[in-house]
Design goal:
The protein has 172 residues and is α/β, with parallel strands linked by helices. The chain has six helices and nine strands; from the N terminus they run βαβαβαβαββββαβα. α1 packs across α5.
Length: 172
């Protein structure tokens, strides 16, 4: 059996990542508000990876609470993620810019392959590939920064257009 992966946040996105990680052969240990990191670290002190799939408003508090033994194993995903979000904690995580939609009651809908970079990029790419979600493993931090800025620009453009004309992302 492969090493365990800890999943912080098991909402829509966390569920997608959890399913892919399980399908690729890793056991998954969830961290939730009722099952905090301190409770899980006792059972999984050295996981293969720690995927952080929480909302933007919760990210900084989660990064503050990550046990020391997990800090070099982090995988971050956010719609508006930028290096300042992890650098202030002295972290060097794996980062994925998610380019698939996941709504309640629906399967994930791929827009374009999701770029991923960092020490756990192959694990994440393999997990998502196991459930039919393509990834593009990036070669360096400059490529990651470009992809993160591109995603932020996309979100800003869609939000602005939505304010003007309304509709869903798909319609826009």
């Amino acid at each position: 059996m492969k090493d365990a992966v800890v999943l912080i946040g098991i909402g829509e996105m966390g569920g997608v990542f959890g399913r892919g990680i399980l399908k690729s052969g890793h056991p998954v240990y969830p961290v939730t508000r009722k099952n905090p990191p301190d409770a899980v670290v006792k059972d999984v002190p050295e996981p293969e990876a720690v995927v952080v799939a929480v909302g933007e408003k919760d990210l900084q508090a989660v990064l503050d609470a990550v046990p020391d033994g997990w800090k070099d194993r982090l995988v971050l995903l956010q719609n508006e993620l930028l290096p300042k979000d992890w650098e202030q904690h002295g972290l060097t995580p794996t980062v994925i810019s998610v380019w698939f939609e996941k709504k309640p009651g629906q399967d994930a809908k791929v827009i374009v392959p999701s770029p991923v970079f960092g020490p756990k990029a192959d694990l994440i790419s393999g997990a998502l590939d196991a459930i039919g979600i393509p990834c593009n493993v990036l070669r360096n931090e400059d490529e990651l920064l470009f992809e993160l800025i591109l995603k932020n620009l996309y979100i800003l453009t869609v939000n602005t257009a939505g304010l003007k004309v309304g509709g869903t992302v798909g319609e826009l």
